[in-house]
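2 proteins. here.
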Amino acid sequence: MSAPRVVLAESDLPTRVGLRVALTAAGLDVVGEAADAHEAIDAIVRLGPELGLLAAELPGGGIEAMSRISDLRPGVRLVLLTGAPTGDELLSAVLAGASGYVSRDVDPARLPTALKGVLAGEVALPRRHSGHLLDALRARTSQRAAVSAMASSELTGREWEVLELLSEDCTTSEMSQRLGISEVTVRRHVSTVVGKLGVTDRAAAAAVIRGRSPA
């Protein structure tokens, strides 16, 4: 059986070399490397590995790269390597398509084991943040139900992404970068969301997803 193929995305070269050595020694085949989000997306889409290990601190955004990869290569397992694990970052990673969320402080000998578990269909998440994740997902489900109840028709997955970025006060340019789509397409989605929610503008749509009455 051939070794599972991995693309490794880490901007710090010495760290990337160390990770490559650890993964290779554990029987994983590092078929590509990247130093920023754009390179990570390109390498994973082009090489089609079984797993992508992305640093959260990648220039261009590790989580943003994951979201784009999930759209383009939905079968690839993704793991986020982070320097400062938080519940909010974990939630963002999971929503972007991550199957694993691993601290840089993890024992180097344990990282390949965690990755192999993800490849086998397991989920690698820090226990101390699992409660936060469950609470946030429950709240998000409830919030989405409330928004859906007032919409004239069901929002698509991309429209939900746009609406949630509106709630973060993202500009059109920022949404374009994070979603990997053109600004023209972003504006079209925003217009559709505003229409489906029956509100006057993007600020009012953002107020709805935040759980407030639109002004």
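next one coming up
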Amino acid sequence: MGITAVSGVKVGHYTDLDAVTGCTVVLCEEGAVGGVDVRGSSPGTRETDLLRPTNFVQEVQAVLLSGGSAYGLDAACGIMTYLEERELGFKTRHGVVPIVPAAILYDLGIGNPKVRPNSRDGYEACCAATSAEMEEGSVGAGTGSTVGKVLGMESATKGGIGTASIALADGTVVAAVVAVNAFGEVVDPATGEILAGPRHSDAEGFQSTLEVLIKGRKAFRQGYRDGESTLATEQVEDAGVNTTIGVVVTNATLTKEGVNKLAQMAQDGLAIAIRPSHTMGDGDTIFALATGKEREPYGDITALGAVAAQVVAESIVRGVMKAKGLGGVPAASELGIN
């Protein structure tokens, strides 16, 4: 069932197929203890400092995953409005203040770069939020996602948004939703086979990002472009145009320290399914939420973290395999390569 397998969690998408962008909201209206791990070098985030264990506020009411680069952070304001109307948030003497951490991915290289998710779109995503099975692929924050960009957008493959969940023997559930917009390729965690990545110019299979980097991008790129370009120019083109972002949720009871450790271990799911991950041009960010409140803090963070990495990896694979081609970028499922 994916992320909505955790009771009390709702997910809503806003999708703009014309501009090829969108956003996704994960709602925990009853509040959840939040944590985060930011490991990419080009992040675009909001309210991540608040999630540190030493800081005061304990719970969040929603997390935003958005396209639109840093412009897309504006969608969080619409989520705040939605929650304020329902009097959900951190209670102060003068009203509630909804806590909405957010992360963005860069999708301005596909579709219309002048159209980005805004406050209205964040509000609409909340209105669409449901506890039913989440739609995956080229929707929400996955609408403009692409992967395999070591040779530029002309050889990229469509990314998307995916979700997965695992129930432990004691009934604890760990689930994830991930929007996959990586510089590197997505691989099958079991075999290492490239599922979606930089395409050969003849459309016969995918290339290895690592092999391209070892041999030099300039040599490979000459097959895609006329003339020569310097490596410095290529690096500027690739910088900051990626980022994989996601949310891990569990029904376990965790402290702020525990949920931040969960987010840290969940990031390993990116390294399992994306080659390479956490690059200079990726702002890879994973949030973690714990909805449990009635029990003692969960004792085996190692088990939760190991499962979290697995559901993140599964979500990444599902995101690219459920995707559909948009903006001139084909999806893996349409190429007949796998």
